[in-house]
């Protein structure tokens, strides 16, 4: 606004500067007081006279209030800057106008009250009049520019002050505490806003939802398997009532408007709150907990009812509509998945919405895996086409699958409703012909299991919880592979292709996931494997020995996954052979079961390959180019993987206590030596003797490691040592030159050494090992 000239002299920008400076001091004082209150409450928690849920709740509230008050202080500081900065610019603009007026006066011009250039009447020649008119136009232009700058300064300052005042109003505490009533009122305001929710409403929701968020300590409690039971009841009421009132449409609209305006933190907080509401491990001291019942009915509806309906799809401009499949609520499911995906994965752990996403994804996949189906509807533009359904499923699995607790429940059945069948969820995801992103997201569902399988600190309750959660999840996954091996080796609708070819990343992930539990599959106890709860929820469920080869056969359908998985099985077998030598066996407890387990593992490797090859031979349409060409190629590839440096995991208890180094080249060489070699199979008698030699060698390696890295002097082994009385040479180095001569000599020398060292029961141990291998290899499976 441009004032009249007579009003300009009363403008005093200095008053605005003083007001701004005072508001700035208030902002700093407010910030300091917020810190003082938070510090005082936190200090109370450091004294023994006040601990427990009430103190924790008070500290949480103090932290959230401090954050909100500091935000108010920041907004006050913005107002201060608007006043001080605006006043400075306004003062300069006013002075510029005054300067123009003064300089125009020296040329004989005056400025009227309405800002017109005026000159005194005088007699002039024609030339003088023209020069005078040109000078008047110059000063008119100068005055116009000065007044424009004055007007701009005034308007910009007014806008800055108005925006700052609105921010202050939005940041000012609207209530003295959170309550269900406030949640309902705020949710209703969101709904009324529709596609253009007022900024002050968006600001307030962001502020209140953030204040109601979980603390880092509470998030860690969830990660450790605990329950958060100390949220104030007002916070619980506020969250539940807000999301109920906002419903599906309000939640989605608000999340999208936050994202469109670059407010990712607010969008994340909004989804975090919904994760809290839907988490059965979060509640108040009064016992009110979250879960499916507190999710708005309109959101629950996305995951309920028939998964598909019938549509009509026109392929071309002149084609008649054809029957098609429509994914019900597909568009809203896609919007919800995108919004909920903005939640912090750590806060999401245990949300029933994660389970719903995964369960519904399995249903949609089951209904749309057949590629001959038409998907979409020419008459409903919100009905997703096939490509959009693929993207939807990829995102649903990605968001739901990052919740480890949800994946555990899906695989184990823990807490799932009556009639739940995990096969209905997992199998369609494993069998779908995914694009790269979808396959990687399914693989990522399981990649945490191996990481959590063995707790690094068994005394840590959190690590033990995660280890048990991983074990129960792996057990459920192993049961699926064992029971559904035929459907995974011959996926419907793929002309006999196996999972290893259709979904190589998933197959490799299955092998990595289950590798820590290979020993458990043949009965090796958890005290050896270091794993926990690979026995199902009851603790009394076990895999049958005949299930193990079925699991291996599924993973064997992809050469890369199989190489890693089988290498670990053979490595564990070698560890068990060595463990028998160092575990202090006695006549009363000869530990022959170590041999049985080791033999079982060798048999499982061989039988798993047989089953996978048999499936391909029995299916004339099978074109699995991702698996091994033959058993010989398989063993050669496994040998290569071991030689290139696969990292074996120490799982045999006696090995750990003896400090045996599984990274030592001699150990890897010995494992490679136990793998059947086609050059040795031409002579069956020699092949059997070579296997016996390798078994003796494994046992000797265990004694060597337990004896400080060398065996005692023994003349029968001099040819096979690295230097005089040094450690045994690597097995493959010994066998590389003239094996028909050197291996029998090695066997004789090792037999003599082991006998002289006082090792008893060697023959019985070897018998147990061979019997364990044959026990598996002789199993008969219906084809």
Automatic annotation (TrEMBL):
Membrane-spanning residues: none
Gene3D superfamilies for this protein: ESAT-6-like
Domain TPR repeat: 210-448
Name of the protein: TPR repeat domain-containing protein
């Amino acid at each position: 606004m441009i004032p009249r000239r007579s009003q300009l002299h009363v403008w005093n920008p200095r008053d605005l500067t003083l007001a701004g400076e005072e508001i700035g001091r208030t902002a700093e004082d407010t910030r300091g007081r917020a810190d003082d209150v938070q510090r005082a409450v936190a200090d109370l928690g450091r004294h023994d006279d006040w601990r427990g849920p009430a103190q924790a709740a008070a500290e949480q509230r103090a932290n959230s209030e401090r954050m909100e008050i500091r935000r108010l202080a920041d907004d006050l500081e913005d107002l201060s800057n608007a006043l001080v900065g605006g006043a400075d610019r306004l003062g300069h603009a006013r002075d510029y106008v005054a300067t123009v007026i003064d300089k125009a006066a020296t040329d004989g011009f005056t400025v009227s009250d309405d800002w017109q250039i005026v000159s005194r009447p005088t007699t002039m020649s024609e030339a003088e009049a023209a020069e005078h008119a040109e000078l008047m136009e110059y000063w008119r232009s100068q005055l116009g520019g000065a007044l424009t700058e004055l007007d701009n300064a005034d308007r910009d300052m007014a806008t800055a002050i108005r925006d700052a005042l609105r921010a202050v109003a939005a940041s000012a505490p609207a209530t003295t505490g959170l309550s269900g009533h406030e949640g309902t009122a705020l949710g209703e305001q969101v709904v009324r806003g529709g596609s253009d929710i007022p900024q002050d409403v968006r600001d307030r929701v962001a502020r209140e939802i953030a204040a109601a968020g979980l603390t880092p300590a509470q998030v860690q409690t969830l990660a450790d398997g605990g329950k958060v039971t100390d949220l104030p009841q007002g916070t619980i009421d506020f969250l539940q009532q807000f999301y109920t009132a906002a419903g599906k449409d309000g939640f989605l609209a608000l999340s999208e408007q936050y994202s469109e305006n670059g407010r990712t933190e607010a969008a994340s907080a909004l989804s975090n709150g919904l994760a809290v509401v839907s988490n059965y491990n979060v509640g108040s001291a009064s016992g009110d907990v979250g879960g499916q019942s507190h999710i708005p009915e309109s959101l629950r509806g996305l995951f309920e009812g028939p998964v598909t309906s019938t549509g009509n799809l026109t392929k071309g401009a002149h084609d008649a509509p054809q029957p098609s499949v429509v994914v019900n609520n597909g568009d809203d499911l896609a919007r919800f998945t995108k919004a909920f995906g903005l939640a912090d994965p750590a806060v999401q752990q245990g949300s029933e919405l994660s389970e719903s996403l995964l369960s519904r994804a399995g249903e949609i996949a089951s209904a749309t895996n057949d590629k001959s189906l038409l998907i979409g509807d020419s008459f409903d533009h919100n009905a997703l086409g096939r490509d959009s359904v693929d993207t939807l499923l990829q995102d649903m699995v990605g968001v739901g699958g990052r919740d480890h607790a949800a994946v555990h429940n899906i695989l184990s059945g823990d807490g799932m409703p009556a009639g739940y069948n995990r096969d209905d969820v997992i199998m369609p995801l494993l069998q779908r012909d995914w694009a790269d992103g979808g396959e990687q997201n399914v693989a990522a569902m399981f990649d945490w299991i191996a990481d959590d399988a063995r707790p690094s600190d068994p005394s840590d309750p959190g690590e033990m919880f995660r280890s048990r959660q991983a074990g129960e999840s792996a057990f459920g996954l192993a049961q699926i592979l064992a029971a559904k091996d035929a459907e995974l080796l011959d996926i419907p609708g793929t002309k006999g292709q196996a999972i290893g070819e259709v979904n190589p990343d998933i197959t490799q992930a299955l092998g990595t996931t289950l590798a820590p539990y290979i020993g458990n599959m043949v009965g090796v106890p958890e005290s050896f494997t270091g794993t926990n709860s690979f026995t199902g929820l009851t603790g009394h469920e076990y895999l049958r020995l005949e299930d193990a080869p079925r699991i291996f056969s599924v993973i064997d359908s992809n050469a890369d996954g199989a190489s890693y998985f089988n290498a670990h099985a053979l490595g564990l077998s070698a560890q068990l052979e060595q463990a028998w030598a160092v575990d202090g066996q006695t006549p009363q407890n000869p530990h022959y079961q170590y041999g049985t387990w080791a033999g079982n593992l060798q048999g499982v490797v061989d039988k798993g390959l047989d089953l996978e090859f048999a499936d391909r031979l029995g299916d004339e349409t099978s074109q699995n180019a991702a698996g091994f060409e033959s058993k010989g190629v398989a063993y050669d590839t496994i040998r290569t993987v071991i030689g290139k440096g696969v990292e074996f995991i120490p799982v045999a208890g006696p090995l750990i206590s003896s400090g045996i180094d599984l990274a030592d080249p001699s150990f890897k060489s010995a494992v490679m030596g136990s793998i059947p070699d086609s050059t040795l199979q031409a002579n069956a008698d020699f092949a059997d003797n070579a296997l016996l030699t390798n078994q003796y060698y494994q046992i000797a390696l265990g004694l060597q490691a337990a004896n400080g890295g060398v065996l005692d002097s023994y003349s029968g082994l001099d040819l096979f040592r690295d230097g005089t009385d040094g450690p045994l040479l690597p097995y493959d180095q010994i066998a590389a030159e003239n094996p028909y001569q050197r291996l029998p000599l090695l066997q004789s020398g090792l037999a003599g050494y082991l006998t002289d060292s006082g090792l008893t029961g060697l023959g019985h141990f070897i018998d147990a090992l061979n019997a364990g291998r044959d026990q598996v290899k002789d199993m008969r499976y219906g084809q």
